Fold these 2 entries.
Entry 1:
Amino acid sequence: MPARNWIFAVAVALFLSLSTFSSAQDLQIVNAERRIDLSSHIVKAFLTLKVENIGKDPAADMLLAFPPTQIKNLAMVQALAVTGKKKKKTYLPLDVKPSEQPDAPNDAGYFLVSFATPLGPGEAVTLEVLYILTHSLEPFPVEITQSESQLVYYRDSAVVLSPYRIKQQTTFFKTPSTRVESFTSVEPANRAGKEIKYGAYEDRVPYSYAPVIVHFENNSPFAVVEELVREIEISHWGSLQITENYRLTHGGARHKGVFSRVEYQSRRSISGSSSFNALLAVLPPRVNSVYYRDNIGNISTSHLRTGFKKSELEFEPRYPLFGGWKATFIIGYRVPLEDYLFEAPDGRRYLNFTFGCPLVETIVNKLTLKVVLPEGSKDPSAVLPFAVNQDLQVKYSYLDIVGRTVVVLQKDNVVPTHNVPFQVYYTFKPIYMLAEPLMLVSAFFFVFVTSLAYVHIDLNIVKK
Amino acid sequence: MAAVESLPPGTPSAMRNAFGTVLSALILVLIGVLAFSIRLFSVIKYESVIHEFDPYFNYRVTQFLSKNGIYEFWNWFDDRTWYPLGRVIGGTVYPGLTLTAGTIWWVLNSINIPLSVETVCVFTAPVFSAFASWATYLLTKEVKGSGAGLAAAALLAMVPSYISRSVAGSYDNEAVAIFALIFTFYLYIKTLNTGSLFYATLNAIAYFYMVCSWGGYTFIINLIPMHVLLCIVTGRYSPRLYIAYAPLVVLGTLLAALVPVVGFNAVLTSEHFASFLVFIIIHVVALVYYIKGILTPKMFKVAVTLVVSIGLVVCLIVVAVLVALVASSPTGGWSGRSLSLLDPTYASKYIPIIASVSEHQPPTWPSYFMDINVLAFLVPAGIIACFSPLSDASSFVVLYIVMSVYFSGVMVRLMLVLAPAACIMSGIALSQAFDVFTGSIKYQLSSKSKDNAEDNTSTKNAPKDDASSGKTDKGEEVSKERSSKKGKKKEREPAEKLSVKSKIVKKKALVLPLEASIVALLLLIMLGAFYVIHCVWAAAEAYSAPSIVLTSQSHDGLHVFDDFRESYAWLSHNTDVDDKVASWWDYGYQTTAMANRTVIVDNNTWNNTHIATVGTAMSSPEKAAWEIFNSLDVKYVLVVFGGVIGYPSDDINKFLWMVRIGGGEFPHIKEADYLRDGQYRIDSEATPTMLNCLMYKLCYYRFVETDGKGYDRVRRTEIGKKYFKLTHFEEVFTSHHWMVRIYKLKPQKNRIRGRVKKLKQKTSSGVSSKSVKKNPWM
């Protein structure tokens, strides 16, 4: 239920004409309920909106507004239209696109949600919006010692930022523990256990904003992968080789002063509570030849559990990570080709694999995914459910002559919700598979022929 | 091979020779595979990783070479070590190994085989062991024929002494140097046997490669002149000897001088003088032989008296000049390591830094058995075999084994030079023994069945049949290695065509009773089997541990201690890239290679004073140590501590060398202050100096909190001082099993500076400037 971002979204109504906006007053939000989950370092906000068209023309879409501080940390926005009531609810995914508005106040950012069917005058619809914010918990104090636990600030608005009038709204913040140092009071606001409730607020005008700061304890692992390079190498001889290069850091409050192993080992519960030393990667089923190492050799602390639906790799970095500490490592594994490579009806082949980062509850600042196609592949194209930077490269691997085409997909700010399938289409003639074996065979043949010739040729001028 | 081809085709002997050639080639390939694969235990049991200390430096240099190219490499000034002095890597390193691996890497990558530099480095040593086996085959073949050659090659492929230095990951100079050494000797013998200038040139190039690879090249440049001298003295001078020697000295010295680390040492240091002296002698001898050839005996006598008298005068002058030159240098022109070769007690007396390295100690008797095993018993037999008949080549290998036995007795590291000699000798011994035994079996059998008929023909065929009968005999009981050894016997004939006749005569004389031969054969096979078992055991258990990761087998399974890499990884990721790390010099190479941090001293040990400074800091009390480290810009101090898990080679056990080396340069460190009853103790009997020195404090800081008593599992005692605080250092990292502890130097306290400032303000300004000058740290 929770969500996290600072300020948040709004809906706008569009007229039938595509390019001109109707006055924002044509839509209004009857009821908004926002639940922001602050229990990990990935802030998830669930927003339920009941939108009503009070204008005279049908509205095809609406706007969600976010304050500028949130828009840059926004990893993902999803919207669902709810139809039916209570137990018979059905959810219909809606199209959400970033949008530019020329008259945006204070650089607010917008996302445009298109309704499934235009909203007629007087009609109402219920939307479920999920948005995910990264890097939005600010540690305070900025530096802590080994024995302190980690306190963070979360800044948001008590009311939902919206270009529309909101008749009634409430916001809930869910904190990971009952320890809350302080929170801004915007009456009515109260706190019960792990939950802070703001509201209900009645009838707020468009672009209302009421900044609040919540200061609370959060010792969940702030595992941030600064850069992840995943390389998926397709071999038509029967396997996919995946190599993942991680640059991991602890994104929480910086560690200050002494690291005492004796305290870390003997008083684990109170010492280094914000540090983490175990990570979990969810790998595909039927994974094999898994390795876990870094630049200077194997890291011997890992367990692999394989299952039918997924495999789990539980591993530890070489040392526990305290705030600001970094570690790099490489995970590699191999999966059978037939699970992931298919032939499309038009004769092309396509790879169907999961995007994103296999580590659970981890933010990836920069993800580069390289799909290395077999030598001789042509016409690569990638299909993804969201926008990424695409590029083509050439890589030379074992005995390559023309090189392998590499489809490079690059995306910033990736969260676990991005772990969805994507496809890479390409054409490939199986005859290319034989190129390298033939090359080796002919090379050896040549060597033997040469030695045969050498043995039988007598270059002496004088016969002995 | 070419010799084989020149026989008329179709005859049985040609067929036999062709078959033998192919078979021996096949056996050689198998020996190469054996040499390579027996060294892979470390990769299979542990992982594909660089081992120990020096290989990490070589690995780092190779990385630099592959990244920046050869010119950058020659000019490389490394500012990440020996801070603040730095080290000129290009001019102080033997580049053979790194250039070899770098070339292999470059070739592989240019044909699009993307192996990493690390992989290439890890597998360089096993690949070169295969080459070394083949070189041994060639060398022994020149001495005693290809049967002995194959036996020697098989023995060398698995000799434990060589395995200890060339397992996968042991990326050290010796890995390629042993190959270069054997190959140089082979080319020397080949030149000696053929008198070909072509081989002489190749010999000089091989020598050049050896000079590039290892400081042990001085062994070659002393051994070969000794052999030449031996030949001259025993009246075996020949033009072939001249061709084998003179070009080697001239070309070899010129080429050696091209290697930056050798440079003018090739003509200036005493290690090389023997070769020049013999060079002069061989010319004199050559001249004498020439003159003898053109003069009548009478004239020759006159000439001899004339020349000898003049020559003596000239020689005396030259010797006087040389002696004066040599005497003018402080160590008499000999480097410390070489001097300790001649006088085994030299190092421990004068140079503690050489004595502190365990591989520079004399070996114990068990280590001979461990490292060359049954070869030790076969060597005497091989020496005897070399004397029947004594040739130039066999006298060389005899000389080789004698010298290497002496050197190995001085320094355990040089066991490595002994191993090839022992293998060659044992190969010869085994081959001759098999020859005699199978020969007598064949003779007895044929004489029984044929009733002495056609004595001549049967003996002529004897060699061939021996081999096959030997083969069937052994084939049943033994494994692959053995069968390859048998095969060798067969191969020998083509190469030994010349001596076949003399052999036949000999064989008749050496006929032994049938039963005795069979029993002796079986015993020999058992000996070989024992050797193989021992070698495999040594390769698997004794010499494969990479030493940066330790394992222990306990009742609940395998336990891995990966603390070194844990802390190096921590250093590399969580400290500033320009921070300086101080540790005892053992860990210098690893710190620069794995953690990529600047170190104060490393395993190169070229500057004794610098090492002594670190030793002094480690043996000083906290404040003094802080000042020393601070003056060196050190940010972190790394100590290795085995007390928690019982890792014996930790810094407390190395502490005596820190005190000794530190005290050698800085007399205020007195070893006596640390000793109680002549021992370094850290228990309640320890001296106050010991309990207050930095090393003690850094190792045992908060140690008592682990078990409440402070029981040190290496020293098997409770520590003397349990509760204390650090004032000038703070603990920033301790690895999982406490093996590595890293401390940070605390910044100077503000309080003091404030007080000084206040004082300054109160007093006159003139005083303050003086006080600033007086103490730069405040």
Note: The radius of gyration of chain B is 31 Å.
Entry 2:
Amino acid sequence: MRRSSNRKSSSASAAAGSGSTKAASKEFEKIDHLFNVYADKSSAIIDPEGIEQLCSSLEVDYTDVRILMLAWKMKAQKQGFFTLEEWRTGLKALRADSMSKLKKALPELDKEVSRPTDFLDFYSYAFRYCLTEDKQKCIDIESACQLLSLVLGTQFGPQVDKFTEYLKSQSEYKVMNMDQWMGFYRFCNEIPFPSLENYDSDLAWPLILDNFVEWFRENQK
Amino acid sequence: MNSQSQRRKNFKIEAFKHKVELDPKYAERTWKVLEHAIHEIYNNNASRLSFEELYRSAYNMVLHKYGDKLYSGLVATMTAHLNKIAKSVESAQGGLFLEKLNHKWADHNKALQMIRDILMYMDRSYVPTSHKTPVHELGLNLWSDHIIHSPNIQARLQDTLLDLVQRERTGDVINRGLMRNITKMLMDLGSSVYQDDFEKPFLDVSACFYSGESQQFIECCDCGSYLKKAERRLNEEMERVSHYLDAKTEVKITSVVEREMIANHMQRLVHMDNSGLVNMLIDDKYDDLSRMYSLFKRVPEGLSTIRDVMTSYLRERGRVLVTDTERLKDPVEFVQCLLNEKDKHDKIISTAFNNDKTFQNALNSSFEYFINLNNRSPEFISLYLDDKLRKGLKGASEEEVEVVLDKVMMLFRYLQEKDVFEKYYKQHLAKRLLSGKTVSDDAERSMIVKLKTECGYQFTSKLEGMFTDMKTSEDTMLDFYAKQSAELGDGPTLAVQILTTGSWPTQPTAACNLPPEILTVCEKFRTYYLGTHSGRRLTWQTNMGTADIKATFGKGHKHELNVSTYQMCVLMLFNSADGLTYREIEQATEVPALDLKRCLQSLACVKGKNVLRKEPMSKDISEEDVFYFNDKFTSKFVKVKIGTVVAQKESEPEKQETRQRVEEDRKPQIEAAIVRIMKSRRVLDHNSIVAEVTKQLQSRFLPNPVVIKKRIESLIEREFLERDKADRKLYRYLA
């Protein structure tokens, strides 16, 4: 219904220690310290460059889905940026205050996300994370395809492959909205693939999926 | 008796307390008298008897408790007589058999009557208490047992009767009176006697007979003749019943005939080559159809058989009509054809099918089916109306006009895409109004009223706006000339029609360069108008106007040319030049290329209207052509009409464009319907929304379920609706 609250990143909290209590800063001392390693000195936020460095420290690829998971854990608002508040949230939840602990936490994070209830949240978060502009409701097909592979590629590989193939081949839809994004996940869970036997286009599946199923069945022949 | 007792006793006379025995011999003697009487009665010697004496004798016997003897005596005597009669009947030869039987029966009845009269006291007192059969009934039963069911008579009787019927069926004349008497006799003996001894075998034999006959007929007759024969047989049987059978037999024998002659051959009759139902419909064979209707009505599934065959024939015929590419070249002819078909079948239903409502419905559903097979039907119906309102109804009386319009309305009702019709009607009406080419204002208004009655105010409000504009423009022009006449002087006379943008069909305005004289007077009008109507904006629709120009040709021939505005702009150029190239004309007038080519074509390439001469003389306009004022132009008419803005069948690209606009217009209507429905229902599943939306919009068009789905998704995206979190089939309204 309503998208998550405003995306303008709060900058005030980045100021190191000035507004926080002594107790809080003690708790977050190590975490903050780690933050400052990667944050940009002037803006006091981790920007894309900082994230790249973070990735190499973690020994994961920039495009790895685990970074997305990390962002999810942090409840990061803006793609490519982590604020101090978000950093604190994430690392505290992961119980990590050093690089080594953070590295170890990643596989755990992977498992956590895979739990069905958490995964649903993660999945919709992934979509929202890509909406960079204010009032933006859709992401372009190209990005959507990449995101799908990243997020669902391991769990529902065949469906994702076929769906992205379809999306790339058609020209009717140039963007994808949240409803269609969520619809696809439901589709993967409820409809057996590749038989698609209980798919009924009279039910309230998004039209894009009706068209996909039709295309798929045509191509099967 | 104590006279002093409190209760007063009634004075009684008591009967003898001792039995009075009748002498048995007396009983025997009395019986003999009666027995003798019965004999005499049966021998037709009753006149010599004394009724009073016999009655008294019988009375005494019963009174003295000799009822049993009397009764059993009666039975024995009667039986003996009947056996004699049986032999007599049996011995009758050939044709006399029935006569004898009839004769004897009459006698028996007479005798029985008398006997009953004599024995009336016994009938009334002894019979009920001893639970015996009353005399009359006894007489009938005995007759049944000993005569009718006598082994030598029973079968013979049945055979004789059935044989007579058979002979009559094959054309012989029989003694109907005799037959009647016999069947009445059987009825009198009891309906089970009638049924078992006559009726059942009669029905069986008839079934066989008609089964055979129908088989024979159907091999050699065509449908019409067969039906005539069946009807004749049916009537014959009914007549037979009325003459010599019991009335209750009628319904049974008619159902036998119906079953054998009609029901069993229904399919074959209806589908008979060259003479079946379809041929009858095509050839307007009212009599045959009427006969088929009334005969088939009698049998189960009869009418529905006719109806089904008629429906599939109509659908196929209609389908062929609306897909016939030759016919589709002339829209007016096409619609006229449809109207003719409707008229023809209406007549058949009213004349031959008794105005049966179910048939009318079948006709309607067939028309609805095939009219919508061709998606240009709405356009064509509008063109037909255009033709009629423009010239077809010229000189017609008011009733004739109403008749034509009502018939077209019937076709209109069948359309599923009424919104497409509305679009075309608006376009065509606009052209008619602006060119002043309408046969009668009353006819136009009548049509609007009919559309309003059918589709509601919304449908016609804009159309009515168009009429209002025309009237207002007239008034404006009068006022303009009244106020401005001094200033206008010798300038060209202007007639302006001011169109309210929302009411008239949207046309892309392509401005062109008007000749200076025209421009001046136009500007004067603009000033005048905006002076009296502030806050409005006027745009000249140069693609819709007309002009009358006086032209002088060689040898001083003067003509008045009626042309379109574009044509006027082109022609006026030739006041200052004798010859101009295409490009020069294009540049000077700024008329869009497609229109300019059409315009030049009508000015230079049409025989009888070639006020311009073109080099080269080809039919088509190319950009290299040069045009000259045609000095040598002649026409026998002083007034020559060149420009016409007549409504025409749209070209393929125009049609696509209109359809696209219609589709665009439908989207907000569908969305509005969805929002309306969801606002009142709050939560609804997908299929229900589709059904509700379809229902709400059906008076205008049939929405495509896929389009509805798309609109729903668009509304979800814009956060008017959401999917229910638990049940994904449901949608929820978001306030």
Note: Residues 457-488 of chain B form the longest helix (32 residues).
